[in-house]
Specification:
single chain; alpha/beta; TIM Barrel; 8-stranded parallel beta sheet; 14 helices
């Protein structure tokens, strides 16, 4: 059955008309058509996760070392993949503008440092971020907005749709939506699937959709794999581990399973989906471990900001300090980088 996903998914990602229309006129195709039966049939075909094996492989990959000659490349790669994030109730326009300035020029003393992958904020700060980025030469940096009643996902579909529209109308070109974990865990898979489809349809060509699974609440790696495939079948452009508000978040076994999911999805459909770990990735060592996971699991093609992002705030400073050490030979303390 999984081999039939190719034509369906290709149509969903390229067809300009409503996915609901696509579903209505393709009842004869036995795919994930939004019905409970098709979703359960699809997920039942997925192999189970060997949790012990996944944990052992993740631990083994974490021991891989990076040669000094490759470390600068790895640091710059990680910087370019950061979704520089502030998601606090105390966020101000001034804080967002300062973060945007840092996103464009992470180290003002060294113009060779790449810009970050994106700025991630609440949707009421999207316009501030977009305007400031454009004014300082950061037009190429997208603004991502968390959406659909982030971080809980506890709201009606109408509220979630309006939340997303507000972000899009304010200039967001990436939407980080949360799934309803309660619905997923209670078996209401149609609700989870349908909400992703609706939000993807709202995004259209205006924004990429990242679907946050909140893996710390999914309990098992089997659930992580199922939620990953469910999100991709519904139209996700990225699958994201977590909101950063729940612990555990982006653990190595979870990221491994999600990378396996996008690798397998590409093998089935020819479509590459991105992965975004978020939460708990704070040091250069943490970031390099993520890059090793990507290369050894999904492949080198995913080592690009188009397919791999790291949601973080404190991480950038540590990467900059390690980069300064490589450049100058001396470890630069936190006083040499700006506070976020």
């Amino acid at each position: 059955m999984l081999t039939k996903i190719f034509s369906f998914t290709r149509a969903m990602h390229s067809n300009p008309f409503s996915w609901q229309t696509f579903f209505r006129y393709n009842f004869d195709v036995q795919l994930v058509d939004g019905t409970d039966a098709s979703i359960r049939r699809f997920l039942k075909e997925l192999p189970g996760v060997d949790q012990v094996g996944a944990e052992a492989r993740a631990a083994m990959l974490a021991t891989r070392s990076i040669k000094t000659a490759s470390k600068k490349w790895a640091i710059d790669c990680a910087i370019s993949m950061i979704d520089l994030t502030t998601l606090e109730g105390s966020d101000t326009d001034g804080k967002v503008r300062a973060l945007c300035t840092k996103a464009v020029h992470p180290d003002p003393t060294d113009p060779s440092v790449p810009s970050v992958g994106a700025i991630c904020v609440y949707n009421d700060k999207v316009a501030t971020a977009r305007k400031h980025l454009d004014s300082i030469g950061g037009q190429a940096i997208p603004v991502a907005a968390v959406s659909t009643a982030f971080p809980s996902g506890r709201a009606s579909l109408e509220v979630k749709k309006q939340d997303t529209l507000d972000a899009l109308n304010n200039g967001a070109t990436e939407i980080d939506m949360v799934i309803d974990r309660g619905a997923f865990l209670s078996g209401d898979l149609v609700k989870v699937f349908t909400e992703i489809v609706y939000i993807k349809e709202l995004c259209g060509d205006r924004a990429h959709l990242k679907v946050i699974l909140e893996t710390g609440e999914l309990v098992t790696l089997d659930n992580v794999r199922k939620a990953s495939h469910l999100a991709m079948a519904a139209g996700a452009d990225f699958i994201k581990t977590s909101t950063g508000k729940i612990s555990p978040a982006a653990t190595a076994p979870v990221v491994l399973v999600m990378l396996e999911a996008v690798r397998d999805w590409y093998a089935m459909t020819g479509i590459r989906i991105g992965v975004k770990p978020a939460g708990g990735i704070r040091t250069t060592k943490d970031a390099i471990k993520q890059l090793v996971l990507v290369r050894e699991t999904a492949g080198e093609e995913w080592l690009t900001p188009k397919l791999f992002r790291i949601g973080a705030s404190a991480l950038l400073n540590d990467l900059l300090m390690q980069r300064m050490k490589l450049r100058n030979g001396n470890y630069a303390g936190p006083n040499y980088v700006t506070l976020d």
